[in-house]
């Protein structure tokens, strides 16, 4: 039974790494500094929040957004699933709670924050963006371009 949870956690981490998501926020800050990129931090409820699921499918998984993000962003997902089988490991849960306390104290879902490598908030989006993936990607990229060193 325990092996099933370990395998599920490993599978989730592999999926996140293949789709460009960095699970460790401190590592994301370090990579962002090294690559002179910004951090896109997304708060989601992957198994209960309809707008969160749509944001992932319609924006973040979109090819135009992904191409922009691959060269411009380090992406971090602070996920708060409700279903027990989808719960991240305790360390990741604690990290996500700390991130929520700092960047999403109102507990909004989805909530997306664009940060510099030091963790300073540059922009935020409450809910599902009204723009399509291409327009949203351009909005994010223009903020990134202004904030390059």
Task: Show the helix and strand layout.
Layout: H1 2-18, H2 25-35, E1 38-44, H3 50-60, H4 63-72, E2 73-79, H5 90-103, E3 111-115, E4 121-126, H6 133-146
Parallel strand pairs: 1-2
Antiparallel strand pairs: 1-3, 3-4
Short key terms for the protein model shown above:
149 residues, alpha+beta, 4-stranded mixed sheet, Glutaredoxin, 4 strands, single chain, globular
Task: Characterize the structure shown.
This protein is an alpha+beta fold and 149 residues long. It has a single domain, classed as Glutaredoxin, CATH 3.40.30.10. The protein is 52% helix and 17% strand. It is built from 6 helices and 4 strands; from the N terminus they run H-H-E-H-H-E-H-E-E-H. The protein has helices spanning 2-18, 25-35, 50-60, 63-72, 90-103, 133-146; strands spanning 38-44, 73-79, 111-115, 121-126. A 4-stranded mixed β-sheet has the order 2-1-3-4, sandwiched between helices.
Largest β sheet strand count, sense and barrel closure: 4 strands, mixed
In DSSP terms, counting alpha (H) and pi (I) runs of 4 or more, how many helices? 6
SSE order:
HHEHHEHEEH
- Alpha-carbon distance between the two ends: 49 Å
Strand content: 15-25%
Q: Strand order across the biggest sheet?
A: 2-1-3-4
**How many distinct beta strands?**
4
- CATH topology tier name: Glutaredoxin
Quick overview:
The chain is an alpha+beta fold. The chain is built from six helices and four strands.
């Amino acid at each position: 039974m325990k092996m099933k949870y370990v395998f599920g956690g490993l599978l989730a981490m592999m999926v996140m790494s293949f789709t460009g998501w960095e699970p460790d926020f401190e590592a994301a800050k370090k990579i962002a500094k090294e690559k002179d990129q910004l951090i896109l931090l997304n708060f989601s409820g992957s198994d209960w929040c309809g707008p969160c699921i749509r944001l992932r499918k319609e924006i973040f998984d979109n090819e135009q957004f992904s191409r922009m993000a691959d060269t411009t962003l380090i992406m971090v997902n602070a996920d708060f699933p409700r279903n027990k089988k989808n719960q991240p490991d305790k360390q990741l849960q604690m990290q996500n709670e700390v991130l929520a306390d700092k960047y999403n104290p109102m507990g909004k879902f989805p909530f997306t924050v664009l940060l510099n490598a030091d963790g300073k908030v540059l922009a935020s989006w409450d809910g599902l963006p009204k723009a399509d993936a291409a327009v949203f990607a351009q909005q994010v990229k223009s903020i990134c371009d202004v904030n390059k060193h």
